[in-house]
């Protein structure tokens, strides 16, 4: 029986991004050995979108109030390279990770599936 999902974020600076998840976002974690931290994520849901070719995968964190979440994270030094954008399914933006990658953040307009 499947009992969870494991998400991988590839990074140019894994140490910095691990520290960000641990210290800035405050995610609980376990050490899998040699500093490889595995983080507990908030409840999750998965959607399947059409794609041409082999497609790709994305990770978006979700919040109840995007403006409030942005203000809180900016007070902790988090950089947002893109202003919030209204989409049919929610309001979204991007968090810049210390390792240079981006992580999606959005406030959904739909009922979250993780409460089902």
UniProtKB/TrEMBL annotation:
Q: Which domain of life is it from?
A: Bacteria
What are the VOC domain coordinates in residue numbering?
3-108
Please give the Pfam families that the UniProt record associates with this protein. Answer: Glyoxalase (PF00903)
Q: Which Gene3D superfamilies match?
A: 2,3-Dihydroxybiphenyl 1,2-Dioxygenase, domain 1
Question: What protein does this entry describe?
Answer: VOC domain-containing protein
This chain's source organism reads: Kribbella koreensis
